[in-house]
Structure formats: structure tokens, C-alpha cells
Design goal:
The protein is α+β, with helices and mostly antiparallel strands. It folds into three domains: 185 residues, no CATH class; 80 residues, no CATH class; 144 residues, Heat Shock Protein 90, CATH 3.30.565. 49% of the residues lie in helices and 15% in strands. It has twelve helices and 13 strands. It has a five-stranded mixed β-sheet. β10 and β11 form a beta hairpin. α6 packs antiparallel against α8 and α9 packs across α10. It is rod-shaped and about 155 Å long. It is found in: Cell inner membrane.
């Protein structure tokens, strides 16, 4: 028997479907979050660039319309923590636009100012997330720093056009969304230098996180409800199959659920109907044959009475009586077909104890060891007959019967005797109808050989079986194994 190995992955179909769908939802949410973060960063960076260009264009117009003595105050008022404006005789950004971002910025400024100015630009735009993550392993490029006492922001080329940035040693540079420096000439003379640095927006915003969580919870709820609805017909089919194995044909299952499950349910209903019809036809045939044999057997017995030889007459009558008993036993077996009795919940321990007490009251050596109570859905009349047959066999061949009940993987009702037992090679043979191992045994002590066959049929109708084994100290152990009800 395979050992149960605990695993984090669910074993049921519903659990596996839910796990699969939830995994897909979580992966989709994660990818969507990454894309939204990147889109949000891009949108904020674009807004920052637009703000810089508008403020620069407005400042140029203002500087050209005001006297020079007010320029310092105007520049101080226009500057902020992320944006600095300075005036100088020469451009502090000396390089011409080189990449697409720099050309786009200079073209936008020219359009806003309405002139084809000689604008110098050095722009570094935040990259997409995957590209940016790949750059984390590279040493950062020096950016703008404070320049001494004046607090003036310098370009990457420094005051004299050379690479004169003051790098802070061993300090990691932050990843920024937008870093730019550009210089543009004024009509009044000199150059306006603009330096900007905007950090990235927060990766997580509580409203976004909360809405994403609520959406995920809603999707999880819908997935769980739908999967349970889809697999509910499968659970009903499993229960019906278990009942059919116990001999309980409780009618057709409703055909619900997806097309494949409805087809499976339809096939199960057809199989159940065919099995029931086959068993009923076989039982009716057996009963008809046994009934029809009554008349010729009666005629044979009457004719045997006219045989003059006493010895021959007695042997003929004995043989005819044996055939009559076999016919009556077969007819009784057919009439008491277990499938005709409805199943109901009974106290199995009380049923077995009552049987043992009945035999003990008749003076038989019968003992019973059973739990106080054990409820099980069975056909009580049929099961009582099976247990009685095994007790009678134990008393007939062993002189005693010791009945025990055990509850483990199965519910076991064991009847042990102290007789000679059965040869190991004949354990299955004794279950065949009309088979008796001791041919010398008389009909008064041996029966007709239907007891074990009947008991096994009843056990099979309950989804169980009968197991025979010889006891180490002598005698036979006949155990009825009944399946425990599903939890």
C-alpha cells in the first residue's frame, strides 16, 4: 500500500484547479503591477520635463523684459530644490544635443520661445524598469553636485567646460527619473543655465496597492465559488459510485455541470441501470428454474415409492430429498435477494451482540466482543443472515464460535472456531455454490453448500468481502470486511 506523503500541493481536483487559477492570478497581478509602476514613472517624468520647459520659457521671457539688477532675485525665486537657474557669460553646458531626448528638449524650447536658438543640452531620462535594473550592477555616472560656497549647480563639464564635477567618494548615486542640464543664450547677452534633477515617484501608492488587493480578493472569491460549482457534480458522482459498490442503487444522478461531467454522469446512470437489470434478470431466472424443478421432483418421489426393492427405494428417496433441499435453498436465496432490502442506519454492534445472544440462549458455545456502539448504514436482515451463516458453519465444524468486532481501515466482523480449518488451496473453492469439501458429510450436518456463497454475495452487496484464514493454534477465521463510511 502506498504511503501518504504530505505535500503543500492540494490532492483534490477542486484544490488543484483553485491553486492553478490563483497562481495565474497572482502572476498576472505581479506583471500588471510592474507595468503600472513603470508607466507611472514614465508619466511623472514626462510631467516633470514639461514643467521644466514651461518654467524655462517663462523665465526667459521674464528676464528679457526686466532690468538686469532684478535678474538675481528672479532667478532665486524661480529656483527650487530640484531646479536651479543661473546666469553666466559663457554656457556651462557646452555639448550640442546628441541623443533623441536632448534633441527633443531643445526643439521643444525653440518652439516655445519662437526662435532658432543655439541651445546646449545634456539630458538623462529614466529608462524602463528592466533596463534600469540591468544598470544597477554598473558604477553610477557622476551627476551634478553643489559647487562650494555659492551653492551653484554645475553641469557634468564643470565651470571651465572640462569634467570638473565634484564627486562624493564611495557614495552610491540614486536612481533618478530625470536629470538634465542645458544652456541657452539670451537676447540681452549672457547664457541662462538650467539644471534639474527629479527622483522617481514612490514605487507603491497605498490607493493602488489597496485597490489591487481588493481586486485580487474578488477574483479569488469568484474562482473558489466557480471551481466548487464545477466540481460539485464530480463529488456527487464519487458518492454515488461508492454507494453502488455497497449495493445501494439510490436512483439516477442529475446531469449537471460542464458537458464532460454530464456525459460521465449519463454513462454512470446507464451502467447502474444495466447492472441492476442484469442482477434482477439473473435472480428471476434462478428462481424460475428452482420453482419449475419442484414438480418433476415431486413426481420422481411418488414413483420411487412404488419401487419394490427397499434398499434401492431408500437411496432413490434420499437422492430426491437432497435435490429438493437444494432446490428449496436456491429458491429461498433468489427470493431473499439482498438488493430488494432498503439500506438503513443501524447499530451494528448491537446487531452482532443480539445474534450471539440468540445462539448462546440455545446452549451454543458463542462469545461476542464488540464495542458499545457502532452505527453503519447496511441492510440489516441480509447482513444478519450472512453473519448467522458464518456462526452456524463455525458451530457445525468447530464446535464453538468466538465473534469479535474491530474498527481500523475497515469494519471487521470476525468469527473464529476451533475446528480443523480448511486447506489453503481450497479457500476460494468453498465459496462456490453447492461445494462441500467433505463428501462423506451427511446432509443433516453439512447443508447444501450455499451458506458461504450467500454470505459472500451479501458482503459484496455492501461493498465488502469475506476473508478466510487458518488460525495458528488451529481452527478457521472467517472475517467480514465492510468499508467505513466516507468522512
Amino acid at each position: 500500500m502506498a504511503r501518504f506523503r504530505p505535500t503543500l500541493f492540494p490532492r483534490s481536483l477542486a484544490g488543484q484547479l483553485i491553486a492553478l487559477l490563483l497562481g495565474a492570478v497572482v502572476l498576472g497581478q505581479a506583471l500588471t503591477t510592474v507595468l503600472l509602476i513603470d508607466e507611472r514613472r514614465s508619466a511623472v517624468a514626462a510631467a516633470n520635463r514639461e514643467q521644466i520647459l514651461l518654467r524655462t520659457a517663462s523665465l526667459v521671457h521674464l528676464l528679457e523684459e526686466t532690468p538686469p539688477e532684478m535678474h538675481e532675485r528672479i532667478l532665486a525665486a524661480a529656483s527650487s530644490g530640484n531646479l536651479a537657474f543661473t546666469l553666466s557669460p559663457e554656457p556651462k553646458v557646452t555639448q550640442q544635443p546628441q541623443n533623441h531626448a536632448e534633441r527633443r528638449v531643445t526643439q521643444a524650447l525653440r518652439t516655445m520661445l519662437g526662435s532658432n536658438l543655439d541651445i546646449r543640452a545634456d539630458v538623462d531620462i529614466d529608462r524602463p524598469i528592466l533596463y534600469r535594473l540591468s544598470r544597477l550592477m554598473d558604477p553610477p555616472r557622476p551627476r551634478m553636485e553643489q559647487n562650494g560656497e555659492q551653492g551653484e549647480r554645475l553641469s557634468p563639464q564643470g565651470e571651465d567646460g572640462q569634467h570638473g564635477d565634484k564627486e562624493r567618494p564611495h557614495r552610491p548615486r540614486p536612481i533618478v527619473a530625470f536629470t538634465a542640464g542645458y544652456s541657452l543664450p539670451l537676447q540681452s547677452g549672457g547664457w541662462l543655465n538650467v539644471f534639474a534633477q527629479f527622483g522617481p515617484p514612490p514605487a507603491w501608492a497605498w490607493p493602488t496597492f489597496l485597490s489591487g488587493g481588493l481586486i485580487a480578493l474578488g477574483i479569488i472569491g469568484i474562482v473558489v465559488v466557480m471551481v466548487r460549482r464545477i466540481t460539485r457534480p464530480l463529488r456527487a458522482l464519487s458518492v454515488a459510485a461508492d454507494k453502488l459498490g455497497r449495493g445501494d442503487t439510490s436512483g439516477e444522478l442529475p446531469e449537471t455541470g460542464p458537458v464532460e461531467i454530464r456525459q460521465t454522469t449519463r454513462a454512470f446512470n446507464a451502467m447502474q441501470e444495466r447492472l441492476g437489470r442484469f442482477v434482477a434478470d439473473r435472480t428471476r431466472l434462478l428462481a424460475a428454474i428452482s420453482h419449475d424443478l419442484r414438480t418433476p421432483l415431486t413426481a420422481l418421489r411418488l414413483r420411487a415409492e412404488f419401487v419394490e426393492d427397499d434398499e434401492i427405494r431408500e437411496k432413490l428417496i434420499e437422492t430426491i430429498d437432497e435435490m429438493h433441499r437444494m432446490t428449496e435453498a436456491t429458491l429461498a436465496f433468489a427470493r431473499e435477494d439482498v438488493s430488494h432490502e432498503p439500506a438503513r442506519r443501524v447499530d451494528l454492534a448491537a446487531l452482532v451482540s443480539a445474534l450471539g445472544d440468540d445462539f448462546a440462549d440455545m446452549g451454543e458455545n458463542v462469545t461476542v466482543t464488540a464495542p458499545d456502539r457502532l452505527d453503519l448504514t447496511v441492510r440489516p436482515t441480509a447482513l444478519r443472515r450472512a453473519i448467522r451463516n458464518l456462526i452456524e458453519n463455525a458451530l457445525r465444524y468447530g464446535g464453538s464460535a468466538h465473534i469479535t468486532m474491530e474498527v481500523g481501515e475497515d469494519i471487521v466482523i470476525a468469527i473464529e472456531d476451533e475446528g480443523p480449518g480448511i486447506p489453503n488451496g481450497h479457500m476460494e473453492e468453498v465459496f462456490e455454490p453447492f461445494v462441500r469439501l467433505e463428501t462423506s458429510r451427511s446432509q443433516e450436518t453439512g447443508g447444501v453448500g450455499l451458506g458461504l456463497a450467500t454470505a459472500r454475495s451479501i458482503a459484496h452487496a455492501h461493498g465488502g468481502e469475506i476473508r478466510l484464514s487458518n488460525r495458528p493454534k488451529g481452527g478457521l477465521r472467517a472475517a467480514i470486511h465492510l468499508p467505513k463510511p466516507a468522512a
